[in-house]
Write a structure and sequence with these properties.
two-stranded antiparallel ribbon, alpha+beta, 2 strands, single chain, 4 helices, about 100 residues
Length: about 100
């Protein structure tokens, strides 16, 4: 599963950079705390890799909006767009990992 993990790491880096750039573009930077909190982690759970994205708690309210704050859509929308863009890369990485298992058998 090393190919999938490597692909998820690249995906996470590119996605966090995109989110940070979007936050700056939308002029949501006041102290830099939100931008600095955007991060990800690749986790191995039950022989399967997952990616988790993080930000400070108030970022959710800026992203999704409230009845008093207009939604800025910088977090979830960018992740969704990136998932669509990277879909084939994930499939290729999983295929490579699968073929390497067959080669070892």
């Amino acid at each position: 599963m090393k190919n999938l993990k490597r692909t998820l790491e690249k995906f996470g880096k590119e996605t966090t950079q995109l989110i940070r750039r979007d936050i700056r573009y939308k002029k949501l930077v006041k102290t830099g705390k939100l931008v600095g909190s955007i991060d990800f982690k690749v986790v191995n759970r039950n022989n399967s890799y997952e990616i988790e994205f993080f930000m400070v708690e108030y970022g959710k309210f800026l992203d999704e909006g409230t009845r008093y704050i207009k939604a800025q859509n910088f977090f979830k929308d960018n992740i969704d767009d990136q998932l669509k863009k990277w879909q084939n890369d994930f499939l290729d990485a999983m295929a490579k990992d699968l073929f390497s298992v067959f080669d070892n058998i």
